[in-house]
Design a protein that fits this description.
The protein is an alpha+beta fold. The protein is built from three helices and nine strands; from the N terminus they run βαααββββββββ. Strands 1, 2, 3, 4, 5, 6, 7, 8 and 9 form a nine-stranded mixed sheet that branches. The longest helix has 26 residues. The two termini are 24 Å apart.
Length: 196
C-alpha cells in the first residue's frame, strides 16, 4: 500500500503553482474558444473549470509527467526516480556480521507516494513512512514493519525498524544502514543495486 513521502525539495510548491497557472490559462482559453465558435453548452454541462483542469493536470503530473527526463534535466523536478526492482544483500548484527543475506527490493513511486518492500529468505518488510532528501546528496529514509517468514528462527518476531540509504551519483546503487526495534535490537548495513 503506497504511503506519502516527504522531501526537502521545494518542487512540490513550485510545480503546484505552475499547474494552477496553466489550468487557469487553459480554462480561460477554452471559454473564449467556445464563445468565438458560438457553442453554448447545456446548463447541466459546465465549461472546463480551472479547478477541474488543475485536478486533472495535478493527477497526470503526480502519476506520469514528473518522471520525464526533461523535467529532471532542467531542474524543475529534483526528486529522483528510484522506483523499480533492486537486489543486493544485508549484513546484520544478528549473526555478528559474518554473512551476507540476499534480499530483493521492490520500490513503487510516484511524485508524492511510495512503497518499499524488502524480501529476504527469513522475513519480509514493508515501508510505512518515508522521505527522499535531495539537498546534500540523495538519501532515502523509511520506517518499516517486518514480519518473519514461516520457516524463520523462533527468536525472530514481527518488529518495526528504520533504514537510511544513500543513492549513488549514477543512481544505480543504494547503500546504508538499518536498525530494528527494541524487540530485535539488530543493526546492519544494506547494499542494493538497481536491476535493469
Amino acid at each position: 500500500m503506497p504511503h506519502p513521502y516527504v522531501t526537502d525539495s521545494d518542487e512540490r510548491r513550485i510545480v503546484t503553482f505552475y499547474l494552477a497557472v496553466v489550468a487557469l490559462g487553459v480554462a480561460i482559453a477554452a471559454s473564449s474558444l467556445l464563445k468565438r465558435l458560438s457553442i453554448e453548452l447545456p446548463t447541466w454541462v459546465d465549461g472546463p473549470s480551472s479547478f477541474s483542469l488543475f485536478g486533472l493536470f495535478y493527477a497526470a503530473f503526480k502519476k506520469w509527467l514528473w518522471a520525464g527526463h526533461f523535467l529532471h534535466k532542467v531542474g524543475l523536478v529534483k526528486v529522483p526516480r528510484i522506483d523499480g526492482a533492486w537486489s543486493g544483500y544485508i549484513v546484520t548484527s544478528f549473526d555478528a556480521g559474518n554473512s551476507k543475506h540476499d534480499v530483493d527490493v521492490q520500490i513503487r513511486q510516484d511524485w508524492t507516494e511510495m512503497s518499499i518492500v524488502l524480501t529476504g529468505s527469513h522475513s519480509k518488510s514493508k515501508s510505512c513512512v518515508g522521505s527522499i532528501l535531495v539537498k546534500e546528496g540523495v538519501q532515502l529514509a523509511y520506517e518499516y514493519v517486518n514480519e518473519p517468514a514461516p520457516g524463520a528462527v523462533d527468536t525472530m518476531h514481527a518488529h518495526r525498524g528504520y533504514a537510511r540509504l544513500d543513492l549513488s551519483a549514477d543512481g544505480n546503487s543504494l547503500d546504508g544502514e538499518y536498525y530494528s526495534g527494541r524487540d530485535r535490537q539488530n543493526i546492519g548495513t544494506i547494499h542494493l543495486a538497481r536491476q535493469k
